[in-house]
């Protein structure tokens, strides 16, 4: 990210904005964090409103929280949507998602209800609804959850993706396994350093 921040500083504003606009919001937010404040302000002012809102939302979450790790590019399906309608939506918006293997099911208020795999959608009858086939068993985290706890949950439950909800259980983002790899590596390094620092007491 530091190298990318240096790279973006030598691009024209137009090129830099185009680059930010092409990145997933969580990656763009990480990049923005490494840039000088005056550059950030100038570039975000020129970004499309949607991109700017996504980045700002991520930047406003506490450091080292689930909210700061998550991406806002995820496949969200309303429970009453038909399978045919779901497939049409996913085809139309496929470029907007970081992952399509798992889709998340919400109600009209965007409260997280469960999840469904792309495979299940593809092989279900077109006239069925998402509500009939989605899985209610789902593990989620709050935006304020500490990133180390999030990483531990990925290990414990062998997850590749996890939804992030706000205080009212509304779906606001997802965390993918690649988002927590660095956290897991940091944790392992810290553990090894602690172990290395412990020496047998001399008798």
Describe the structure in your own words.
With about 200 residues, the chain is of the alpha/beta class. The chain contains eleven helices and six strands. It has a three-stranded mixed sheet with strand order 1-2-3. A three-stranded mixed sheet has the order 4-5-6. Helix 2 crosses helix 4 (about 35-45) and helix 10 (about 145-155) crosses helix 11. The chain starts with a helix and ends in a 6-residue tail after the last helix.
The main pleated sheet reads as:
3 strands, mixed
Order of helices and strands: HHHHHHEHEEHHEHEEH
Please tell me how large the radius of gyration is. 20 Å
- Low-confidence segments: none
First-last Cα distance: 48 Å
Kindly state the number of beta strands. Answer: 6
Tell me the number of helical segments per DSSP (H or I, 4 or more residues long). 11
Shape: globular
- Share of helix, binned: 40-55%
* Beta-strand residue fraction: 5-15%
Write down the overall mean pLDDT: 88
The largest beta-sheet arranges its strands as: 1-2-3
Structural class: alpha/beta
Summarize the structure.
This protein is of the alpha/beta class. It has helices spanning 2-9, 13-22, 25-34, 37-46, 49-59, 66-69, 83-93, 118-122, 130-133, 147-157, 177-197; strands at 76-78, 102-106, 112-117, 141-142, 161-165, 171-176.
